[in-house]
Design a protein that fits this description.
LRAD1 protein; LDL_receptor-like_sf; elongated; LDLRAD1_C; 16% strand; 136 residues; three-stranded antiparallel sheet; 3 helices
Length: 136
């Protein structure tokens, strides 16, 4: 089998197309849109039995083993697993909030432990403690 691992934008896990140049983010594989010139990112062999038919580097299994997300959705700040296991804990092994993020846990809505700083003082509560509106 061909090694199709590559690093897409922002060092996110990617899929290397047949041209050996184009690297698409993992979450664009099997999304019903051909991102590789020859369409190899949408082939039945790759997409026929998701997630089992995908190369392991493209898949992240959530703490509930029946739930999975694409590897580039791990540590992206959003609660893609539904239980924050893709953002917090030993499975995900994410770095602490970056400079573009405000750390507050627990977080309400779609985030887990950090909210984008652009949401600070926007009049909407994102942190359980309201720190995104009063401290951030």
């Amino acid at each position: 089998p061909v090694n199709r691992f590559c690093a897409a934008s922002n060092n996110r896990t990617g899929f290397l197309c047949d041209d050996k140049v184009t690297c698409i983010p993992a979450s664009q594989v099997c999304d019903r849109v051909s991102n590789c010139i020859n369409g190899e990112d949408e082939q039945e062999e790759l997409c026929g039995d998701l997630p089992h038919s995908l190369p392991g580097h493209l898949v992240f299994y959530c703490s509930n083993p029946l739930v999975w997300v694409y590897a580039d959705q791990r540590c992206n700040g959003r609660n893609d697993c539904g239980d924050c296991s893709d953002e917090m804990g030993s499975l995900a092994a994410c770095p602490l909030c970056g400079s573009e993020w405000w750390n507050c846990s627990p977080v309400l809505y779609e985030y887990c432990s950090c909210v984008p700083r652009r949401l600070c003082r926007d009049g909407v509560q994102h942190c359980h403690s309201w720190s995104d509106e009063y401290i951030c």
